[in-house]
Amino acid sequence: MRYGCGGGWSYGGRSFLTKEEKLAMLKEYKEDLEKEVAGVEERIKELSAK
Q1: Does residue 16 or residue 6 have the better pLDDT?
Q2: What sign for the dihedral angle of Cα 9, 11, 16, 25?
Q3: Is there a contact between 21 and 1 (Cβ–Cβ < 8 Å)?
């Protein structure tokens, strides 16, 4: 399961996903966003310390 830029979703080329597949994708997307936020916060701290 993967999501793309602009909110595009893909799952092996299938057009219709089950509710469970959509939920799993959203959870994966949320985890990736949380990691991105952590990276941004880390970079802000690094730049602020200089």
Answers
A1: 16
A2: negative
A3: yes
